[in-house]
Amino acid sequence: xxxxxxxxxxxxxxxxxxxxxxxxxxxxxxxxxxxxxxxxxxxxxxxxxxxxxxxxxxxxxxxxxxxxxxxxxxxxxxxxxxxxxxxxxxxxxxxxxxxxxxxxxxxxxxxxxxxxxxxxxxxxxxxxxxxxxxxxxxxxxxxxxxxxxxxxxxxxxxxxxxxxxxxxxxxxxxxxxxxxxxxxxxxxxxxxxxxxxxxxxxxxxxxxxxxxxxxxxxxxxxxxxxxxxxxxxxxxxxxxxxxxxxxxxxxxxxxxxxxxxxxxxxxxxxxxxxxxx
Length: 277
Prior knowledge:
Layout: H1 2-23, E1 42-46, E2 56-58, E3 66-68, H2 73-76, E4 83-87, H3 94-103, E5 106-110, H4 114-118, H5 120-125, E6 129-131, E7 134-135, E8 139-141, E9 159-162, H6 164-171, E10 176-181, E11 204-212, E12 217-221, E13 227-231, H7 241-248, E14 252-259, E15 266-273
Parallel strand pairs: 4-5, 4-10, 5-6, 7-9, 10-11
Antiparallel strand pairs: 1-13, 2-3, 8-9, 11-15, 12-13, 14-15
């Protein structure tokens, strides 16, 4: 009988682990049991699509490196006309360097923080173009005045911020091959601009974010490899992330996502342009 009980116990444990794996994304900001979806105030599901990618890891295998789909025409051309915007540098630019060495891309880096500016000389030594501006609503923000979009984070120094379309106009760029955004919550300030550049034209070929969420949000993996974001409480900062992701999904298709392996605050997501149906 003892052996039978052990077998039953083992099967039960395996079943529980399986349920946990399906209904919980264990490394994220908020764990969501499958039965809790009915208690949410709003949600959006972002399905994963088969994008015929040739995925390559660019840069570090840990935080700082990113996966690239590789289907953008500029990444497949020998003419080396690809352009990368790397929003958020700090002191890790292994992704930027890999894009230059692997594809011969022009890489424009953006970071207004003292950590980023301290890396400016090294960044330019590897061939990058460093811009002392950040992503956000265009303007100059005195210390503590930048809108907080994640976990109370704000600017300790005076920062100049610009939206992506405004940056492109100032640098005289029409299209960005790869747009990487890792800006500690500021990604939400310009989410609505990623569908068009004001002319009704999409200006990116690959789009990748680190997405940050406050505690009222939760996430659940979906069986197709995508994810669902739930909102369980009132908006803590007035930013409706569910609605923003819903709008983004009209022009962008998710081909990959994963937890930030070094930080449980957020997820990393990769998009390609959505093919009109």
